[in-house]
Design goal:
single chain; alpha+beta; Nuclear Transport Factor 2, Chain: A; 6-stranded mixed beta sheet
Length: 136
């Protein structure tokens, strides 16, 4: 029988944390700039999307269509975020984001999570989790 890993597992360095937070800074810049194809380049497809009572895989084509729809009509958009990375090991990190997204005069608080996977090309997001989109 294999032994279980020691409690606590991987302890990320400050550089590990900075690399993940820098990834999100770049991604947020792409989202605000509505650079949907470049956003898709940051994903590991098929991408998993999870919400209340619903989970599905998403290919690049579907992701691009969804992002174009979501970002297409927004005027000036800004996002103020606080991110908390939870490293599973050196190659997997789940990041909880608390953000306020402002479009014009409307602001909304959102909380979501992303699973990032380290690849030979750097971090890629593979799973997006956000409550409130599905139905029971």
């Amino acid at each position: 029988m294999a032994s279980l890993p020691a409690h606590g597992g991987y302890a990320p360095s400050p550089a590990d944390i900075d690399a993940v937070l820098d990834w999100f800074t770049r991604y947020d810049t792409l989202a605000v700039g509505k650079e949907v194809e470049a956003m898709a380049d940051q994903a590991m497809f098929p991408l998993n999307e999870v919400t209340d009572g619903y989970a599905a895989s998403c290919d690049r084509e579907k992701f691009v269509a969804q992002m174009r729809e979501q970002l297409g009509e927004a005027g000036d958009v800004s996002m103020d975020s606080v991110r908390t990375p939870h490293f599973i090991n050196e190659n997997l990190v789940f990041v909880i984001t608390d953000a306020i997204i402002t479009a014009g005069e409307h602001s909304q608080h959102v909380r979501y999570g992303d699973l990032l996977v380290k690849t030979g090309d750097g971090w890629k997001f593979q799973t997006m989790v956000q409550g409130g989109w599905g139905e029971f």
